Amino acid sequence: MLRALMFILPIALTIYAFIDCLNTPEDETKHLPKVAWVFIILLFWIVGPVVWLVAGKTRRSAAGGGASGPWRREPRARWVAPDDNPEFLKSLRDGGKGGDGASGGDAKDDALLKDWEADLRRREEELKRRDQDGGGKGDGDPKQP
């Protein structure tokens, strides 16, 4: 078991460091360019990943006081819930399409709704007439009234 661990652990550490290096932005690498770090990790596959983890990347402090990270550089890029976003709520009011239908809609929507209701009433009347005339005796032919 220990023999297998001696081979698996360095390979796993190399894979982790390689993926971490590839996902790190160029401006967060220390001392060398990102391409150089990739070569160090792959060529020195036992020592390279340890060096990358210790000295290759700028790390945040555990308390979160560091200035690195995308949320520190671009505060306006934060995601805001739709209920808390006044621009989104304003776009709903301006668009005339409130989620609960309280805004009244425009004339085009009202016309579509009236046409749909008229079509629904017509179909219901047609079904009632069929039930009264035939009593549900259909032989499976959809063309028969």
Automatic annotation (TrEMBL):
Its main location: membrane. It holds the Pfam family PLDc_N. One of its GO terms (cellular component) is plasma membrane. It is a multi-pass membrane protein. Residues 60-111, 123-145 are annotated as: Disordered. This is Cardiolipin synthase N-terminal domain-containing protein. Keywords: Cell membrane, Membrane, Transmembrane, Transmembrane helix.
